[in-house]
Every structure is written in C-alpha cells, then in structure tokens.
Amino acid sequence: MKDKIRVAQYGCGKMSIYTMRYVQEKGGQLVAAFDMNPHVIGKDISEITGTATTAPEGVVVQDASRAEEELKRIKPDVCLITTMSLLRDVEEALMICARNGINAITICEEAIYPWNSDPEMTRKIDELARETGCTICGTGYQDVFWGNLITTLAGATHRITKIKGKSSYNVEDYGIALAKGHGAGLTLEEFESEIARADNISDEERQKLVDQGTFLPSYMWNVNGWLCSQLGLTVTRQTQTCVPQTCQEDLSSSTLGMTVPAGKATGMSALVVTETEEGITIESECIGKVYAPDECDRNEWTIQGEPETQVVITRPSTVELTCATMVNRIPDVMNAPAGYVTTEKMPRTLYRQGSLESYLI
Fold first, then answer.
1. What number of CA atoms fall less than 13 Å from residue 294's CA on the CB side?
2. What is the reported pLDDT for 81?
3. Residue 52 above 80 pLDDT?
4. Is 118 left (phi over 0), alpha (psi -120 to 50) or beta?
5. Which Gene3D superfamilies does this chain map to (predicted)?
6. Which of 47, 203, 294, 343 has its CA at 20 to 30 Å from residue 209's CA atom?
7. Model pTM?
8. In terms of Cα–Cα distance, which of 84, 133, 130, 131 is closest to 111?
9. What is the CATH number of domain 6-139+329-359?
10. Where are the beta strands (DSSP E) in the chain?
11. How confident is the model at residue 2 (pLDDT cuts 50, 70, 90)?
C-alpha cells in the first residue's frame, strides 16, 4: 500500500481554507504551512480550515522566512502555493521548492503558461527543477474552465475560425493583492496612468518587456498561450487591452476596507487577442471587479466554425473550483517529468474518487 502524499501549504489565506481541507479529505497528509501574515502565523491549520472544533491538526503556520529551512528538513512530496498572481511574486517560493527537489503547484494565474510572458524566469525555474528532479506547474480555475473545457469542445469541431471567451469573477473572493491589481478603488485617471497605459505600446516594445521579465500580463494572456500550445497553433501576434469597470452606485468592499464611490473603478476588463499562422483567432476577456448586489460569476465561450458551439456556465463556484482543481492535479504533477511542466502537457484533470496516492504511477 502506498504511503499518503505529504503536502506543504505555502500561503494560508482565503484559498487555503479549501486546499488544506480538500487535501485531507482526499487522503493527503499536511505536514507544514507557511505565511507572512502575523495574524495567521502561530495558528493551528485547523483554525484556518474551520475544523478546530473537532481536533487540532498539530501543524502550526510558520513564518514564510522559515520555509526553505523547514521544507529542506521535512521534504514533503508536494508544496501548494496559494499567494499571488504574478510569477515574479511567487518566484521565491517556487525556487525554494526547485532548489530542494520538491514538487510545487501554484494557482498564480501567470504560472499557467508563463513561457509567453516571462520566459527567462520560467527557464531558470525549469532548469533548476530538472537538476533536482522535481516538477513545477501552475493550475487553477483556468486549467479547466478556460483551458481543457475549450480544447475538449474543439475536439468535436471540424473547422475553427475563432474562439471567443469571457469570464467574470468577484475580486472580493481573492484578497487585497488581486483586487488592487485589477485597479479596484482607483479613479479613472489613476487607472489610466497605473494600469491601462502599460498596454498602449508597440508590439516591439511589448516583446522587449516580455524578454526583460517586466511585462504585466492579464490572466488571459497566459491562457491564450496555453490554448495555442494545446491546439498546436503558432502565434503571430498577441495584444491586450485593459479597461476600467465602474458602477453607478457606491459599492462596499470588505477586501479593500473601503467603499468604492460611484464612478471610480470597481475593477477591470482585460481583452487579449491572439492571431495565429493557421488563421484561427482567439479573443478572450476576463472581468474582475467588486460586484454589485445583482452580479455573479459567469464563464462563456464560443467556438466559431463548423459547427459553432457555445457553452455558458452561470454562477460557477470559482474559488472552490480553483482549489479542487489544484488538489486533483497533485498526482499529475508527481507523475510528470522534472522541470517546469505546463498542464496542457499533462493528462486532462480528473475527478479523484480515491485517495490521491492511489493515482501515482
């Protein structure tokens, strides 16, 4: 009988409430947890997952500054990283894992396919992970709902001319870093200066930023790269445009700790357009904002061609789906070759009825 998969949790905020519980309910063993928030450090993980009324787990959240020392000592099978949205923000955590030969999965949105936004850093992580024999990857909601769902539908299509996608999510569900990254709370002038202006550049200027590792990709930038890789398409040009979202009434934001006045940015829409040598265009849009009372998450994709197919998912439980995808990916990552392996090169995500270790090869 195989031993339980030993899991470390890096980042003990909103998402870890689900990832840690899901790991345990799928037969995994949590052996360490790390965070930078002084209000979280020192807590038993059962206080975070909401299971403290039954029994403490005996795993206490440690300061993230001790992560390398502890991970080297306990050598878990995999580390789940649920912190920030840009590769540069999770680089340290990924490099700690890579240096110590520990498999790592992150829900950092850029990490789903960082080869088209920060290839130099991706290569650095990839080379180190190959040397130490571990696998690094990004996953999450986009792995299924912006990726595998779309390519599965494409597999039932004779001819594709265009793929169009639009997905919305409430920034309140993901923490302050994500909300601020979407411009929530900014004036329209501030949004133009701090966010939108960065995309008003030439293709050559954008490529230079990508090569330097200073480009700021929206979530769909990396998703479009993932889709093209999965579908065997050759990208000739890719652009993105970020537009502020507003509301005609004041909106209270517990995440920002403020009321966003009417007319200020509640978040943003990011539209990414990808052109390919094969003549197929991918237009994908993600809308992240502080929701008004009548708004909800929505995921809508259309494959144009012969035949045309549309799929609409209303009110997906985006947070829980993100976390379940991450946990279900654990066996795939452990079964994958060493290096930075993006998930379009792994099997499609599967429901795990049994314990996670039973799916190891």
1. 3
2. 98
3. no
4. beta
5. NAD(P)-binding Rossmann-like Domain
6. 343
7. 0.95
8. 84
9. 3.40.50.720
10. 6-10, 29-35, 61-63, 78-81, 103-106, 135-138, 159-170, 235-246, 251-253, 258-260, 265-276, 281-289, 298-306, 309-314, 339-340
11. confident
pLDDT by residue (tens digit) across 131-183?
A: 999 999 999 999 999 999 999 999 999 999 999 999 999 999 887 888 988 99
Alpha-carbon distance 48 to 46, whole Å? 5
CATH C-level class of 143-316 = alpha beta
Exposed e or buried b per residue across 79-101, where buried means at least 16 C-beta atoms within 10 angstroms of its C-beta = bbbbbbbbbeebbebbbbbbbbb
- Distance in angstroms (rounded) separating the CA atoms of residues 354 and 312: 30
Question: Where in the chain are the domains?
Answer: 6-139+329-359, 143-316
The C-alpha atoms of residue 2 and residue 169 are separated, in whole angstroms, by: 39
Taking all residues of the chain, what is their mean pLDDT, rounded to a whole number?
A: 96
Residue 51: predicted pLDDT: 80
Query: Is-contact 35 14, C-beta < 8 A?
Result: no
Query: Contact, 29 vs 6, CB < 8 A?
Result: yes
- Give the span between the Cα atoms of 208 and 198, in whole angstroms: 13
Q: Report the distance separating Cα 107 and Cα 97, nearest Å.
A: 15
Q: How many Cβ atoms from other residues are within 10 Å of residue 258's Cβ?
A: 14
Q: Beta strand pairing status for 78-81 and 103-106?
A: parallel
Tell me whether strands 309-314 and 298-306 are parallel, antiparallel or unpaired.
Answer: antiparallel
Q: 92 with 22: CB under 8 angstroms? A: no
Percent of the chain, pLDDT > 70? 98
User: Does residue 56 have a cis peptide bond before it, meaning omega lies within 30 degrees of 0?
Assistant: no
